[in-house]
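During the second year of the project, the team shifted from modelling isolated chains to modelling whole assemblies. The rationale, set out in the original proposal, was that interfaces cannot be judged from single-chain predictions alone. As a representative example for this report, we include one of the complexes processed in the last quarter. Its constituent sequences, exactly as entered into the pipeline, are reproduced here:
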Amino acid sequence: MKKTLQDYKSAIKPVWCPGCGDYGVLQALQKGLLELEIPPEDIIFISGIGCSGRLSHFVNSYSLHGTHGRAIPTATGAKTARPDLTVLAVGGDGDGLGIGGGHIAHAARKNVDITYILIDNRIYGLTKGQTSPTSPLGQKTKTAPFGAYEDPMEPLPIFLSYDVSFVARANGLDVKEMQEILTGAIKHKGMSIVYIQTPCKTFPVIDPKAIKELFQPLPADYDKTNKLKAMEYAYSQKPLYTGIYYQVEKTSLEDRLQDIMTSACRKNDNGKVYSVEQILQSYA
Amino acid sequence: MMSNIKNDSEIDFVVRIGGEGGDGVISAGELFASAAARTEYHVFTYITYPAEIRGGFSMIQIRTKNSTVYSMGSHIDYLVVFNQVAYDRTIKELREGGTLIYDPDEVKIEDNLNANIYPIPLTKIVTELTGSKLGKNVVALGALGHLFDIDMKVLEKLIQDRYKSKGHEAVEKNTLALKAGFDAGVKNDWDRKFHLIANKEAKSQYMMISGNEAVALGAIAAGCRFVAGYPITPATPIFETLTKLMPMVGGRAIQLEDEIASISACIGASFGGLKAISPTSGPGLQLMGEQLNLASMLELPIVIVDVQRGGPSTGLPTKTEQSDLKYAIYGTVGESPRVILAPIGVEDSFYQTIRAFNIAERFQMPVIILTDQSIGYRKATVKIPDLSKIVEVPNSVLCEDITIPSPERVDIASRIIAVEADLNSYKRFVNTENGISPITIPGTPGGQYLATGLEHNESGKADYTPANHVMMNKKRFTKLAKLAEVFENNLPEYEGSDKAKIGVIGWGSTYGAIKEARLIAEKRGIIFRHLHPKVISPLPENQIRHFLAGLKEVIIVEENFTGQFAHFIKGKFGIKPIEIHKCEGVPITPEEIYTGIEKVARIVDEENIARL
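Output from the structure prediction step:
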């Protein structure tokens, strides 16, 4: 039976603030999964803590809502164990760039075939308005009553230097664009990051109108394999380019491990995996 | 040819080889132990490494016995020293009338030693042969080979196995060194008391493995097919062994950026349906704390191994200590059920690891295995279980009917999988009589569910209502209570006379030393009984009450500063034990334990006399 959007919705109704950008991300993701016709039972969806962490509650999938900042290594384990499934992970600017920021580099090195959705609203929303790694300098927040005293992080160039094999930015107010980029990311074999910028309605740092005007798709003749060019575009503040900045083919972790397995069993009869008995006897 | 040679007494002797890190002391000792293991005898090794790569004092001790070896022994019978530091640091432990082999060009010995003294110029011999100082360890091995009448063919084969990866020349040079050492032994015309004659059958029935390898092999036997880890002394050999073995058995091994990521990956893999393990040591366990709670909350099976080392902080990375007990039991914010197992030796590490997986899988919770450096780095002969008797326990079998894995029978239990009927409006966390809810594996249509670290209801939805929190907490702890019941029905884990007035309690690696202390004591007319629970939490409390009944004094032996297990036992049973702590980075010996017990026995005796 042909699936409908309903098939990708869980029984739990979303609880974000009215007008929250996360609704759009959720919708784009569900539409993208429908478009790709991935059966819900073949999806593992892992989230961290924050408003974005709730995303996994609302998707009909094998969903794991874990601790703060650990979605990426959890997804890495899930994908390594189950290369046959689609593994997604999501986090916000706090989860993905603050507490869990260290994990991105290593998942990129592994080129594990997961899609990481990073939703950036430049504020800690769930805990009601504290400074995040991307809050602008001077921004007044609950933990920076006299204005933020740190420079904000610039995520895209970081992902590019980590050599994440698929790096994209999407306008969080544009469901169609998000869907298009997300499906590209899910189809990509290897680590993909979709960086979505979207305003928080309740603790606004980003002005929705202003950012809308800043977004502009990457040029039509843009070369997705040119990393230095990608860097240049990634640093641009006006406009904020959207689309796939960088996409290269690299062997994924699953394939690398499969190769290791084949070579480890090469000497055994017909290349079969070794039995427990054989392993124990080798220590006799 | 030599089969008519008989050993003139019971075989039980201790050899120690000491030198500078990088001298090859450990590999010489391991080769000697392997040679001995290929006879009909049991061996037990104890190693200390310096924390540095080269330099520093390093030694290996090998005890060989014609029955199961329980400890490294209290005294050294044969001491081989390569340099002055090794001599100075260990000569006091050589028993009176023992044998000292030393390099006279490197070591100056004191006069009037009560020992059989054999100078062998190890460095000179090897330098003359090969032009290099490397290989003096193999000269020593050759000499020991002659001293214990080991077949030269066995030794040559070992040299070949060990050095063949380094090329033909390495094998040749080392074989020359081996023979030169053997000849030096011949020249010594020493009194050969023990004859280690090769026994072909022994080879296929026993593995010669370290405690760390035992954990790795236990995991493989248990059906674990995923390891994620981060190197940390002294647990690294478990991870190294598993990174080698996993691909061979169709499993996956990945190194992560830290311990938090490692346990996270295990949670992800377990969620995906694989049995998962992460080996670590104290500081790593501490980093894993938050994710351990998550595994409890998501009711996902994972096994974490903590090979304890000296603490606190970076502490004594290469030394042994039993000081992570409280953290393992209580290191949780919020209350999250977990099980703590403490293997008592190398062989037990193999079987307790299988048991850890059985418990984790059947009860859907994390299990921590607490071993320590002294078990991890010790090598011993381990009987290979009868693999034809490995039983995959079906879904329907009750938890209490799963036996404790042993060489006679190994049960392999997996998680209880939701069946078709459960999937009709599937509730992942359905509250059952024993708290165990059938789980689905991703890829199963209709089995999708949400596992959240937030308090949740039976279907998985976040729910903070008071009644729900009460119910779910109870459900999670019902599993632990059920487990405690299962443990209660296991055979009591104590030994010794029921008439004893003194009871000794230990845990983990001190088992062998306490057992030997008990045997020494019995010979000298002191009887005590010895409790050594392998399950540290939840404790089988009735069994322990039964053990405590009728005792006048309870002694708790452990290798830490503050008496962590004693504190735990005192809190649970309201007793006032006498505590014997050794916290020096090295294992406690049978003699040290015996000395303590003898003092207590005297007090108990005096009390008895006073009452007459």
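The two ends of chain B are 64 Å apart (CA to CA). Chain B touches chain A through 65 residues (CB under 8 Å).
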